[in-house]
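REQUEST
  id: r-88c1
  op: predict_structure
  target: Putative secreted protein with PEP-CTERM sorting signal
  payload:
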Amino acid sequence: MKRWTRGQLAGGLAGMLMLMSGGHAHASLVGRDADGNAANGYEAYYDTVLDITWLADANLAYTTGVAAAEQGRMSWLDTTAWIDQTVNAAGLYGVSTWRLPSYAPVDGTSYQLDSSVTPTAYFDGTIDYGINNASTSSELGYMYYVNLGLLAWADTTGTATTGGYGFDSPGVTLDNEVTGGYYNTVQLADVTVGAVTFSQVAVHGGLWTGATVTNDPYWGSGQSAFYLTADNGQIDLDAVSYDPNGFDTRQAAWLVTDGDPFSVSAVPEPASGVLMAAGAGLFAVRARRMKKGAASQRP
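RESPONSE
  id: r-88c1
  status: 200
  body:
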């Protein structure tokens, strides 16, 4: 008879409990039922690496009609005001700490925006302006490159990507597409990668971060905010206020909150509690039988 080690017993129990939890994960994302109604799927995903929770509705401003005509895009100042005065004031899903994704300097000290420092600086993610920044310092970059597995328009050496990039990357499924813009192209779509689905993602244009700088080399004096270009993976800068007579400085907002506010309760539901107790009992019986059998075989 095959003997199980303590490690195998523990691993088997952990596997059984994981199946009972009912959560699905892709990379570091774990689905969360924020509204308490399991029948309508997940309203959020917890990132176990970044320790933040993303809304499954990736464009709340659009789906709630706040900026529907602009596919959810607003200036950075209008976006942050809407988050504070509307979303957090209402306590979406009982949480009042929703925010834009953070973007910290890659070197941990100060933002580096000069792409001429090395031949590959723009391409290899070593500065704060460019592509392929998949570090945890960029919450949007980590989601884009790691969790969703999207590709930039070029690799870290500057070689152009073939076979699709951005939300046209391999393995990405788009549904419920919303078209618009000058060329009537796809602006928003439900994005599915593996078992994870986010709704109405701004697959064209930019996604705001919460990080700002002053006197940047592109917009000059004043305040600018970082955003990630969904089309090609580039981190760029835009003026924080909307200029109706100049560039369109409106981007979309994908909200996050710190921690895991919708984690499964440590106290199991009655039905799952019975299953867990039964499972633990089976493992305990198995362990006792093994111990008894081992004792009887001793010389």
